[in-house]
Amino acid sequence: MKTIVFLALSVALFFPGSSNGQSCRGRCGYGTDSSYSCQCNPACERYGDCCSDYAVECKASTSCQGRCGEQYNNQNECHCNSLCPQYNNCCSDYSSLCDGSSGGSSGGSTTITDAEIKTVSEKLYSLDYNKASSSQLTINSQTLVSDSQTSSQKDLSSQPLFTYVNENVLFSKPTYAAFLAVLDNYNRMTGQTENFSSQQLSEQDKFLTETMSNTQVGRELFSFLQSKGVYSTESDFIYDLKMMWFGLYSRYNGKQDSSGFEHIFAGEIKSGKVSGFHNWIQFYLLEKSGQLNYYSHSFNGPWTSYPDVLGMQFMWDGYFKQVGSAIIGCSPEFDFALYSLCYITRPGKLCRLSIGGQALSIQTYTWNNSSYGNGKKYIASAYPATP
Ligand SMILES: *[C@@H]1O[C@H](CO)[C@@H](O)[C@H](O)[C@H]1NC(C)=O
Ligand SMILES: *[C@@H]1O[C@H](CO)[C@@H](O)[C@H](O)[C@H]1NC(C)=O
Ligand SMILES: *[C@@H]1O[C@H](CO)[C@@H](O)[C@H](O)[C@H]1NC(C)=O
């Protein structure tokens, strides 16, 4: 994809007044961006290319906005964890923003009930017009194994999982095309720095626009979160998604080698194993190209049409995944929206959804080692929890 103009436009939209590249305003924690002359992530401290206002914009924070319950960090001027009242070092807005909340990425004192989350997940399900129909996708799940057999590393399925995918129809839809453009921008090995060209960065923006602004699934998620006071404007919502999903952090050796998007949608290799990898389209593409061998499944959801949920055992080019769960046959905007909903409303917890009248739980994890904005946490992982 080749859209330099789009990048220039989107940069201007996301960072009004700072497109000369000199300010960290709105850029804290985001991955190295070569279209700027200075950077705003922790790596800039090592490379010596931080913007002049990096410390002010990104490090010193005197508010608990977005920081409730964060881990103690002596770099901060004041604190927002449950021990700060005892140590008398809370930020002045701690009691109004954090008291009584469990903390998490959205901060604030918004209460969102399980029943409300279930209702909105049913709505997202009913609005997923871009999902695969039974004539567009055929899977062959073959051998079902018990939980105790998931570690056996045996190929118990002679056929591929995906028998047929109508790529012409599905992959030409704008959200699938935007998703595919981002999916191949990653190096799967942890410990190897991710670098993005300006074109690849613009693909991230395009993916967010196509999935979250241009679909009913995305608009429903935003209006729900807005009604709960989590975001006041659509651009706050898109910007926060961009940071939590695409902002880089380090899983190994101090390198900016990972992000929530890479981990969950593209998959990574860490300590000789597959880590993350919870998307059906990535699974299909790698299986089709001969790089992935489906072994068995240990979970098959109760759904009789797409999307369905499977927990799969597979080998990815020499690396094993014991249970890679994924929502099968949904659109890219659907699993992105569900994972975002759960991460934003139930960070680090089990999030209970209702999908077509059936229960589905999504487990998310926060990344605790680095942060963006005023101490907000990146997504470490999110996936369907298979009982
Ligand atoms: C990525 O960036 C790192 C650090 O700046 C550099 O050492 C490496 O060569 C780059 N890799 C690619 C593929 O450009
Ligand atoms: C997290 O940060 C600590 C302290 O900076 C470091 O020792 C540790 O290796 C980091 N963990 C990961 C997974 O990067
Ligand atoms: C982050 O911290 C929470 C609370 O201590 C913990 O439960 C969670 O597992 C941590 N996340 C990761 C990715 O380790």
Explain what this protein looks like in three dimensions:
Its cofactor is Mn(2+). Belongs to the ENDOU family. The chain has 387 residues and is an alpha+beta fold. It has a domain at 118-384. The chain is 33% helix and 18% strand. It contains 14 helices and 10 strands. The chain has helices at residues 4-14, 42-47, 54-59, 84-87, 94-97, 114-126, 167-170, 174-183, 198-213, 216-227, 234-246, 260-266, 280-288, 332-345, and strands at 137-139, 162-165, 268-270, 273-275, 292-300, 308-316, 319-328, 350-355, 358-372, 376-384. A 3-stranded antiparallel β-sheet has the order 5-6-7. The chain has a 3-stranded antiparallel β-sheet with strand order 8-9-10. A two-stranded antiparallel sheet has the order 1-2. Strand 9 (358-372) and strand 10 (376-384) form a beta hairpin. Residues 2-20 and 101-109 have low confidence and may be disordered. The structure holds 2-acetamido-2-deoxy-beta-D-glucopyranose (3 copies). Residues 193, 195 line the site of one 2-acetamido-2-deoxy-beta-D-glucopyranose.
